[in-house]
Specification:
heterodimer; A: 314 residues; mainly alpha; MetI-like fold; 2 domains; flat; B: 300 residues
Chain lengths: 314, 300
């Protein structure tokens, strides 16, 4: 990780009467190249966040306005039943979605890791949903969940005439429809990361375990999985991010319904800002989403930095 | 005699081992096949239904082996189907998405490559801090930026236009593309750059002659990531554009939500496939690199 110092060319310059044009261009080019991106990112990340934070503390309704009202929007947000449903939905969804996607992803990765034939084909099949938008996924699955045309009709036409499968149209089960679809979409992604991890494990360790007579199951449990444990955390963090930002999937699958049973924070923000003209409270909800992300990401970032330091210590 | 018993024991053990091997292989392939069917089913159902005739779908349901064949649904979905009052099919929205995703992908990838080059090979005091700050953009939820973007797009007159969406995607993409390229360029030996500088090569020459020729693997990954991400994006599309200006994701939701009594599953299937095809194509063509880059980029 050595760096090329900016003024590495100075020795040659000091022999000449002054820096030539080319040397000057060389010196300022890095800054010139970076400047527009830096400015744009700075505005996007910091100015936008502070702006939204300010709006969340203002009395904005249909249009942004800048009368300061303190935490009123947050109070009104948290006293709203729909927001509480949205927030608890997020927790419920995240827990099942992450465990499900990681579990299936790990199973698929271990299966593929058994030196199967046509590995690339299996991988491609399991990963392709990631290339498809949540809109497409959500739309197709909403059809499959549709009792009169989808899975229920198929099973009934096969003879089980009292078979019931109407996940998405029942208030109490609609969230499971979203969980299943979410897992379908992103377990392949977990598989890809786990597979890369499994492949990075030192083969000698595995051989040593096998010579000692450990079964495949035991080798995975005792040797391989502990080694790749950092990947579990990385996959979980990525999935939590997906979960918190979940908007498209719900928009295409249930549109927050039936009723308000599948409202999520991301849906709520959109609804408040652009359907109901309550910009201030919408901004407060958006800030709560950022807070949820920070609760997950800040400790993770600190942990990663700490681990790097520990590993690079002599 | 003893030889024969030992051989018999061996045979029995070998037979048991090979039987176990056979069973475990069968279980592995059976499980993989079951999952493959679950993963492929929705895509196959879409493809089948886009070619089945609507009365047959209505009678046999969405999940059935095709008994009829038509191409009409594709033509209708592409150019004549009505969404919210206009009857131009998906064509216009498809082109909107194309004119949005292609320039935004190229621009953000170029910026990422050059930023990555600077942040890995021309570091200066504070450049690591700047890199870390740029990374924060990766984690920003789009909802935080909605009001500010609405205001900004209004100010510069890009409301309800593809250019506005290009601007958003380029700015948002910088964090990702810079991260990918920087992490990749770090692994190019600094000595290579030093040697080139001793030979008198400047900033641009080194970029053109050393960095770019080594870049294809990471540029392919970045392009695939950006293109699929931008093509599939929905939130900004639905918030900042309407009607004929919408990208295909927003149009798809409008189309499938339109509350006609008889659901034209054949046309809707074709429309959904039209919306899914470009990123799928990109993924199937570059999937090998996609998997490699995804795993490299995400575990780092």
């Amino acid at each position: 990780m050595s760096t090329v110092p900016m003024d590495a060319g100075r020795n040659s310059a000091s022999a000449a009467p002054g820096p030539t044009w080319r040397e000057r261009i060389t010196r300022i080019s890095p800054i010139l190249i970076l400047a527009p991106s830096l400015a744009a990112s700075f505005v996007y990340i910091f100015v936008f966040t502070i702006w939204t934070l300010y709006i969340s503390l203002s009395n904005s309704s249909l249009l942004p306005s800048y009368g300061f009202v303190g935490l009123d929007n947050y109070v009104s947000l948290w006293s709203n039943r729909r927001w509480n449903i949205a927030y608890s939905n997020l927790f419920f969804f995240s827990a099942f979605y992450i465990v499900g996607a990681m579990g299936i992803g790990l199973l698929l990765a271990i299966l593929i890791d058994q030196r199967v034939r046509g590995e690339a084909i299996w991988r491609t099949i399991f990963l392709y949903p990631l290339a498809v938008s949540f809109i497409v996924t959500g739309t197709v699955w909403s059809w499959l969940y549709n009792p009169t045309d989808g899975i229920q009709m198929l099973v009934r036409s096969l003879g089980w005439t009292d078979f019931n499968f109407a996940l998405a149209s029942d208030r109490s089960t609609a969230i499971y429809a979203i969980i299943i679809t979410g897992i379908w979409q992103s377990s392949g992604f977990a598989m890809a990361l786990f597979l890369a991890g499994l492949r990075s494990v030192d083969q000698d360790l595995i051989k040593a375990a096998q010579i000692d007579g450990a079964s495949t199951f035991r080798t995975y449990r005792r040797v391989i999985l502990p080694i790749i444990s950092p990947i579990f955390l990385a996959v979980a963090v990525v999935q939590i991010q997906f979960a918190i930002k979940t908007f498209d999937l719900v928009a295409a699958l249930t549109r927050g319904g039936p009723g308000i049973s599948t409202t999520f924070p991301a849906i709520y923000v959109y609804d408040l800002m652009f359907q109901r003209g309550q910009i201030g409270e919408g901004a407060a909800a958006a800030m709560m989403m950022l807070a949820a992300l920070a609760v997950v990401l800040v400790p993770y970032a600190l942990f990663v930095v700490w681990r790097h330091r520990r590993e690079s210590r002599p | 005699m003893t030889d024969a018993t030992i051989a018999a024991v061996h045979d029995r053990e070998a037979a048991a081992a090979s039987r176990r091997h056979f069973v475990s292989r069968t279980v592995i392939y059976a499980l993989l096949t079951i999952f493959a069917v679950i993963y492929l089913a929705p895509l196959l159902i879409l493809v089948f239904n886009s070619f089945r005739e609507q009365p047959e779908i209505a009678q046999n349901g969405l999940i059935a082996f095709p008994r009829s064949f038509q191409l009409k649904a594709w033509a209708e979905a592409w150019s004549t189907y009505c969404i919210g009052g206009t009857c131009e099919g998906m064509r216009r929205n498809f082109l909107n998405s194309l004119w949005m995703a292609v320039p935004a992908t190229i621009l953000s990838t170029l910026l990422g490559a050059m930023n990555g080059y600077v942040l890995s090979k021309w570091r200066f005091k504070g450049s690591e801090v700047l890199f870390t700050l740029m990374l924060l953009g990766v984690f920003m939820p789009g909802q935080i930026a909605l009001m500010p973007w609405a205001f900004l797009l209004g100010k510069v007159g890009l409301t309800n236009s593809t250019y506005g969406l290009i601007l958003i995607h380029v700015v948002q993409g910088i964090s990702f593309t810079t991260l990918f390229c920087r992490n990749y360029y770090v692994s190019i030996p600094d000595d290579l750059i030093k040697a080139a500088r001793i030979d008198g090569a400047g900033f641009w020459r080194i970029f053109r002659k050393i960095i770019l020729p080594l870049s294809p693997p990471i540029l392919i990954v970045t392009v695939i990531w950006q293109f699929t991400g931008i093509w599939n994006e929905y939130l900004f599309g639905v918030v900042f554009t309407s009607g004929r200006e919408q990208p295909i994701t927003a149009a798809l939701v409008a189309l499938t939500a339109s509350g006609t009594n008889v659901r034209a599953y054949d046309v809707m299937s074709a429309a959904v496939l039209i919306g899914a095809l470009p990123p799928l194509l990109v993924y199937f063509l570059g999937g090998k690199y996609f998997v490699r880059g995804l795993t490299q980029g995400a575990i780092k």
